[in-house]
Write a structure and sequence with these properties.
This is tRNA (guanine(10)-N(2))-methyltransferase TRMT11. With 460 residues, the chain is α/β, with parallel strands linked by helices. The chain has 2 domains: 171 residues, VC0802-like (2-Layer Sandwich), CATH 3.30.2130.30; 234 residues, Vaccinia Virus protein VP39 (Rossmann fold, 3-Layer(aba) Sandwich). It is 26% helix and 25% strand. The chain contains 13 helices and 16 strands. The strands form 3 sheets. A 7-stranded mixed β-sheet has the order 2-1-3-7-6-4-5. A hairpin with a 4-residue loop joins strand 15 and strand 16. The termini are far apart.
């Protein structure tokens, strides 16, 4: 798509991890802050340099207050495939756009950033000196400058074949950095209460951004576990609520997940996790509840539903059931007994999740969840569908050579009607969905084959 205005061009410097998640995150955040994703680039692949048109600097700053996929953003003043092209581009940039940042009362510094190549200090100074034609009238201040300018050089993606000259060179005024430090400050390694499947901090923030979580939203996680996704949403000012079928996890009881610790401590729970980060005021509650049998009155309660359902690998997929559902031959329990735990097919779990989301999300609210897939058999038609929900993005994270999980983001576009509850049964792809039910068996069959192959190789 053509750029709306060359004067509104910005350069995003992206982090080189979770590559598939970057574009949906940036699109979601621009949409959240009233912008639209407009770019002249056709693909975004693995390159860390993205040129975007953004309506205002305020929107650019708001974007960087949220993103964990981008490192920095710059107002782009010039761009070329060679130094000569860059200088020509800079000479064509309107002087009136430069002057507010170059006047005699200002202080500045120029930084050199290279991707996939290291320059000597002498080479960096040479590049800075070559910019003397720019109308800088202020004083250089290397410690606390008012304005920072950067030359960014792209030497491609192959560390084994680094070219002599860069593929692209950019020059811009630094605007803001992203929130990469959140990945470390919210690291699960430092968290008070964790479980076997606590979500990585970086992915938790990416999920909250895909869900367009904002201040005063109500965010729900029906498979809350130790609350990692609640923490990310609360960090962005949302009020958080969750349920889980596991009584011990919800109440912080039983065996600890940490090495060299046998039992969980008295203050090891979800509320304590939010308290650890100063987010307790956003904690609504977490209940012991069965996601397959939600006890909600009809209505729209949530601005976002963000969750990581169990896949049956490290955490079992369970639901409560009545005595009638117990296979014959099992000893009967008294009627007063708490309902027993039954297996919960993945296909049923995802359809229940989509139906629940269609019923309880506000219009425009988003569902963000992980879908495990057996890679050799995966097709896009296997992603569960619902008439009230529109697919926004579908990103892959590899788990092994033969399995992966896909981060699915959907948006509610239609009010729920009773007839929508079983609409998936009419889908041509319904039988494909059943393939999810054997994910656990396929996962472990692959593990068994890999172990056998490694043992055979070690014996040779």
């Amino acid at each position: 798509m053509a750029m709306s205005c060359p004067l509104n061009r910005y350069l995003l410097l992206m982090a080189q991890e979770h590559l598939e998640f970057r574009l949906p995150e940036i699109k979601s955040l621009l949409s959240l802050f009233g912008g639209q994703f407009i770019s002249s680039q056709e693909t975004y692949g693995k390159s860390p340099f993205w040129i975007l048109s953004i309506p205002s600097e305020d929107i650019a700053r708001n974007l960087m207050k949220r993103t964990v996929c981008a490192k920095s953003i710059f107002e782009l003043w010039g761009h070329g495939k060679s130094p000569e092209e860059l200088y020509s581009s800079l000479k064509n940039y309107p002087v009136e756009k430069m002057v507010p940042f170059l006047h005699s009362d200002s202080t500045y510094k120029i930084k050199i950033h290279t991707f996939n190549k290291t320059l000597t200090q002498e080479e960096k100074v040479k590049r800075i000196d070559a910019l003397e034609f720019l109308p800088f009238e202020g004083k250089v201040n290397l410690k606390k400058p008012q304005h920072i300018f950067s030359v960014l050089e792209d030497y491609g993606l192959d560390p084994n074949r680094i070219p002599e000259n860069p593929h692209n060179i950019y020059f811009g005024r630094w605007i803001a950095d992203g929130q990469r430090e959140l990945i470390e400050s919210y690291s699960v390694k430092k968290r008070h209460f964790i479980g076997n499947t606590s979500m990585d901090a970086g992915l938790s923030f990416i999920m909250a951004n895909h869900g367009k979580v904002k201040e005063n939203d109500i965010v729900f996680d029906p498979f809350v576990g130790t609350g990692g996704l609640l923490i990310a949403s609360a960090h962005f000012g949302a009020y958080v609520y969750g349920t889980d079928i596991d009584y011990n996890t919800v109440h912080g009881l039983g065996k600890a997940s940490r090495k060299n610790q046998k039992w969980r401590g008295p203050d090891e729970n979800i509320r304590a996790n939010l308290r650890q980060y100063g987010l307790e005021k956003y904690y609504l509650d977490v209940l012991v509840s069965d996601a397959s049998k939600p006890s909600w009155r009809k209505g729209t309660y949530f601005d976002a539903i963000i969750t990581d359902p169990p896949y049956g690998i490290r955490e079992s997929t369970r639901k409560t059931g009545s005595q009638k559902e117990i296979p014959k031959g099992m000893e009967k329990c008294p009627e007063s007994h708490v309902p027993v735990s039954l297996s919960y097919h993945l296909s049923d779990m995802f359809f229940d999740l989509l139906n629940f989301s269609a019923e309880t999300l506000v219009l425009g609210g988003r569902l963000v969840y992980w879908l495990p897939v057996y890679t050799p058999e995966y097709t896009e038609e296997m992603v569960p569908w619902h008439p009230c929900l529109r697919l926004i993005s579908n990103c892959e994270q590899k788990l092994s050579s033969h399995t992966s999980r896909r981060l699915i983001t959907m948006e509610k576009v239609k009010e729920f009607e009773n007839r929508d509850e079983y609409s998936h049964l009419l889908s041509d792809h319904f039988l494909l969905y059943q393939g999810h039910n054997s994910f656990r068996e396929k996962y472990f069959s692959g593990v068994t084959k890999r172990i056998a192959k490694e043992e055979k190789f070690s014996q040779q």
